[in-house]
Structure formats: structure tokens, C-alpha cells
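=== RUN LOG ===
request id: a7f3
mode: sequence -> structure
chains: 1
length: 66
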Amino acid sequence: MNNKTNYISFWLSQAVSELGSMMTSYALIILVYQQSRSVMQVSAHFFHICTEGGDKLFYRRICGSA
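=== RESULT ===
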């Protein structure tokens, strides 16, 4: 039973970490637009997230690679 509790604790901590990473990436997209007022800059940043940060399931689905 202790292993199950450890697994659930680990899973929840990873889920919170992933959520924080996605929120940061989303906030960066908003920040880039507010600073540059350029859709081209936002798309370049988003493309970077899709290619370099491709381990994020959320962005892989949006970018069409999963």
C-alpha cells in the first residue's frame, strides 16, 4: 500500500510541475506579444516551443506532432 501512495504522490507532483511549465510557456507567448506587438514574433516563439520543447504533450497536440 505504501508503494501506491508513493506513486500517487509522485504522479501528482509531476502533474503540478507540468502544469506550471505549460502556464509559464503560455505566459511567455503573451509577454512576447505585449512587448513586440508582432504576431510574427509570437509565431516564432511558439514554433520554438513546438520544436525545442516538444516533450510537452499539450504543445505537441497543438503543433500537430502527436
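=== NOTES ===
The chain has a mean pLDDT of 78.
Residues 4 and 10 are 10 Å apart (CA to CA).
=== END ===
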